[in-house]
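Student: Hello, beginner here. Can you help me understand the protein record under this note? Any guidance would be welcome.
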Amino acid sequence: MADRKGKRLTRREVLTRGTAFGAALLVGSGFIAHPGEGWAAEVAVLTPETMATLVVMARDIYPHDRLADRYYAVAVKAHDMAEQKELIEAGVAALDSLAAGQGASGYAAIPWEADRVALLRQVEGTPFFQAVRGNLVVGLYNNQEIWPLFGYEGESFSKGGYIERGFNDIDWL
């Protein structure tokens, strides 16, 4: 990411200038950022473009309007390791190739979620998709920061169990 004068911006500069860039997911040298939400994530092994695609893919697999992209970024960060680089980079390249068939510059550039999900359905049997989806189950839903957003209070055993702690307070049944 560069400013108007062509100077490379650091993560800190991208975040402090966030309002000037809008609310898009930004890809920089070694990081991805969302200035509208005020977060950035370093990328060590994968390319930042691949990591940005994984964030969009994660949101498409498990869509939750109440969750910020930063939670998805934390969940897919587990794929940023040498052991998974080949699988993940090749899988994202395949998704981008499918997107190019629809005239988009890449999977993350497709504006409609339904169109991206249609592409995911074409690769859902691949080891790439299964690895990302499987990691998201733990990486996303085991994040204690998002539990309150879903109304989940966490485990109850250490607090006396569910019978003694709100077993009958379900108001949505």
Summary: The chain has eight helices and three strands. The chain has a mean pLDDT of 84. The first helix runs from residue 11 to 16.
